Amino acid sequence: MTRDEILPKVKLAFVAVLEHDNFELTDATTAEDVDGWESITHMMIISEVEKAFNIKFKLMDLMNMNNVGDLLKTIESELH
Q1: Cβ atoms within 10 A of the Cβ of 25, count?
Q2: Of 5, 19, 36, 63, which has the maximum CB count within 10 A?
């Protein structure tokens, strides 16, 4: 699965949790850029992404994620 295929599924996870789509996800997007993306919704988004891709993130991976680009890289590595 390529990044171009992963990104729309990730966006759906964000929309499902945040209940709006008033944002654009790029590699540089962080929680500060998206209304409603806070600590509790962050964990809900991670859970939703794990379900969407049938993967489980390692704690170290979660701690090293600083933006959407890091999330996409981690998903890619989990799928390969």
Answers
A1: 18
A2: 36
Q: Which 3 state secondary structure label does DSSP give 5? A: helix
pTM above 0.90, yes or no: yes
- Which residues, in sequence order, are CB contacts of 58 under 8 Å at separation 6+? none
Low-confidence stretches of the chain (pLDDT < 50) are none
Q: How far apart, in whole angstroms, are the C-alpha atoms of residue 18 and residue 5?
A: 21
Distance CA 67, CA 20 (A): 19
Please list, in sequence order, all residues whose beta carbon lies within 8 angstroms of the beta carbon of residue 44, skipping any fewer than 6 positions away: 17
Q: Residue 71 carries which side chain, given as an amino acid letter? A: L
